[in-house]
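Minutes, structural biology subgroup

Action item carried over from last meeting: produce the structure token record for Methionine aminopeptidase 2 (Psylliodes chrysocephalus). EB confirmed the sequence was re-checked against the source entry. Recorded below for completeness.
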Amino acid sequence: MAALKTEIKEDKENDEDQEHAAEDDVDGANPEASKKKKKKKKKKNNVIQDEDVNSGDTNKPANVGVTEEAPAENGDVDNDGDAEKKKKKRNRKKAGGKPKQTDPPTVSIAELFPDGVFPIGEIQDYPLVKDDRSARDRVTSEEKRALDRMHNDIYNEVRLAAEAHRQTRQHIQRWIKPGMTMIQICEELENTARKLIAENGLKAGLAFPTGCSKNHCAAHYTPNAGDKTVFEYDDVVKIDFGTHINGRIIDCAFTHTFNPKYNKLVEAVRDATNTGIKAAGIDVQLCDIGAQIQEVMESYEVELDGKTYQVKSIRNLNGHSISPYRIHAGKTVPIVKGGEATVMEENEFYAIETFGSTGRGVVHDDMECSHYMKNFDVPYVPLRLQSSKSLLNVINKNFGTLAFCKRWLDRAGATKYQMALKDLCDKGIVDDYPPLCDIKGCYTAQFEHTIMLRPTCKEVVSRGDDY
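Output recorded by EB:
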């Protein structure tokens, strides 16, 4: 077909050359007629060129090129530039017909992968447990592979949430600048994540508020309305947020800094998290993971303003198991030696997260509370206050047992809810989670990934090119 197209084009060009020669003879005698002919011919050529372009693209109607390329009547507009902009704006598809992500990202992950198959995370082999080599046989075991296929729908939901997390955080890493307020940062991140996850009530959305804990504050801080806190050049901020599909949660975090003097602290915590991920596996004792994390974390030192600090694992923070609509599902993954001898089991999901500090390595509640979550196991409790009943209805409808913050209550339309929220907390229906801080003047860092303990292998589902 390509050769036939070329020959036809050459014949057409020869005919056009002969027409040009005849026209040139006439044009010398009548200049006005010449101008009209050239203008008419130019318009005709544009139409022909556009038809040639469109003939090779079955995704466009045949008249798209004509509409975009036709010259303006007054002749003083750059139609080529305008047409190119329109094409870029209109054509969000790759060669294979798949939609293409925008910058900043606005196209949902489901649209980007119309076949419904989402990117697989990093695959790792399970570690050997007490010289038991059966962990190596999981990949080839037909029984384990069959179990893997049985849960593929669940894995696919988690991967969708993971891809939304990846694209959101990579956008934020490029977008964020010193001098921005924490509310600006959280709103940009949350608005982006909502678009990518295609927020749909409790079926798809954000799993918990965006943590942006600064410096000595290690976790559970997000700004309430009116908070004017700014991300400065010398700050160390932990960006911790979650996405979910049908309650399947991705819990993933990173540390962001502008000043390179904190690089060693960031490196220590990233290394410790990766150590914990590598150590995790079916039949592995949780306490063994904590011991390996602490050994790596505390092998690092960081020099800040002429003083050297050993990086310490924050011993009262830890990773945790995850289940549907339940961010903390019962098992904890320590980041220091000691702890539970409980083992990890097949088809469990875990958030492997580590925190390093230049301070004491212990956190306490501090500052104004912003994070809240309905108690997963709370029985029915009668409520007397109508405002408490109304607020609980808002929580049940919008968040269920997923964590939320005051900004999100504002967004859901709740007003004058402070007394009602306190009442729900006092009765144990809702738990509050204040910011967790080490000593003032120190710096803390965090990295976190969600892993799936599949029958055949371990999948670091939230892994990305960034970390």
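Discussion: DSSP finds 13 helices and 18 strands in the chain.
Next step: EB to file the record with the rest of the batch.
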